[in-house]
Specification:
4-stranded mixed sheet, globular, alpha+beta
Length: 196
């Protein structure tokens, strides 16, 4: 099997991003976005999805964190799309219901080539650490559309905002790991159309 690794660079007047993703890694990460809590979330994504992820971002944090977080989502989505390749032999679908103390989060992924995000979370704080909670949806929207995936992320039960956000990133990681995993019973792509 080929190496499923993508190296991405995106430079705009708002951000400069270098990102490397290995879908078949061991959960190693080296992440520096300038937003501590966002680094922690991306580290959890890598560790729990068993992806190797390197992210270096120089963003206009003197404005706010919006461009850094959204653009990182775009680049990560592009990397997922490139690394997964032609989707031959992969499960395509993945899902996880993940508990974290009082919080329960559902994430479901379909690598169908059609972007869509369904997101549900009621945050009670404007920020967790130095990350604005409204940016959580923007991140997953950017990932889903850049990767051309159908993505559902829903807080089924929650209370602590930190737990809710962290459980979302971990549940997404586990669902994506399942979706990109190979199944020897699948010949070609898992689609009645013959393509994804």
């Amino acid at each position: 099997m080929r190496e499923r690794i993508a190296q991405m660079e995106r430079v705009t007047r708002e951000t400069a991003i270098n990102l490397r993703l290995n879908l078949d890694g061991t959960g190693q990460s080296d992440i520096h976005t300038g937003i501590g809590f966002f680094d922690h979330m991306l580290d959890g994504f890598a560790r729990h999805g068993l992806f190797d992820l390197t992210v270096q971002v120089e963003g206009d944090l003197e404005v706010d964190g919006h461009h850094t977080i959204e653009d990182t989502g775009i680049v990560l989505g592009n990397a997922i799309r490139e690394a997964v390749g032609d989707k031959q032999g992969i499960r395509r679908y993945g899902s996880m219901i993940l508990p974290m103390d009082e919080t329960l989060v559902l994430s479901a992924v379909d690598l169908c080539g059609r972007p869509y995000l369904s997101f549900s979370a009621d945050f009670t704080r404007e920020k967790v650490g130095d990350m604005e909670t409204e940016m959580v949806r923007e991140f997953f929207y950017a990932v889903s559309y850049a990767a051309a995936m159908n993505l559902h992320v829903k807080v089924l039960d929650g209370g602590n905002n930190h737990h809710m956000v962290e459980a979302m990133f971990k549940a997404f990681a586990k669902a994506l790991d399942e979706a990109v995993s190979y199944d020897h019973r699948i010949s070609g792509v898992l689609s009645t159309k013959g393509s994804l």
